[in-house]
Amino acid sequence: MKNKFKKTVLPILAFALCMFSFSSCETTDSFTCPYLISNPHIELGKVEEKYNFAGLHFGLFNDSSKTVERFTVSFMLYDADGNNPFVGSNCIVSKCNWKVQPGACTDFVLGLDQYLSCVPDEPYIIDYMYLREITYTDGSTWKDPYGMYCVREAYE
Asked: Which of 68, 73, 150, 152 could pair with 130 in a Cys bridge, judged by C-beta atoms 3.0 to 4.6 Å apart?
């Protein structure tokens, strides 16, 4: 009875375990970063129709063969001393409905006025900036919920 069990049931269980293990694997596309962020920096002052006091300026290069329809950007802001400049969290997450063609680099401005509790004297430092999610015009998405491809350098 034991030999029959080993010969029939164990191979079936091993096969099922392998199928279950590999069924959650994704393609290598999910292991590559489909974008580049360039020159992120904070500017103070007023930019018509964008912000009155402070804004994040950055370039986004679409390193994929698909058109970006929208994306969610995440970053942290610090003052010159490395402290949280806000009353609440200094982690900013913003959904941006901006298109970027394949192979194109587009400059963006994201107003920060809604996060401010006082007008800053000097630009904030940007750290841990990345795209959490990208939605393409074909309906597909790319996700990085934990910031594996974040900019790990602080920018002023």
From this structure: 150
User: 110 with 97: CB under 8 angstroms?
Assistant: no
Nearest by Cα to 59 from 77, 43, 38: 38
Beta-strand relationship, 141-143 and 125-136: antiparallel
Instruction: Tell me the pLDDT band of 29, cut-offs 50, 70 and 90.
Output: very low
The Cα 103–Cα 34 span in angstroms is 10
Helix, strand counts (H, E) of the chain: 1, 7
pLDDT of residue 155: 59
Q: Is 114 helix (H, G, I), strand (E, B) or coil?
A: helix
- 49 and 23 in contact (C-beta within 8 Å)? no
CB 127 within 8 A of CB 92: no
Q: Provide the sign of the torsion angle of the four alpha carbons 69, 74, 80, 84, taken in this order.
A: positive
Taking the C-alpha atoms of residue 57 and residue 34, their distance in angstroms, rounded to an integer, is 20
Stretch (H or E) spanning 5 = helix 2-23
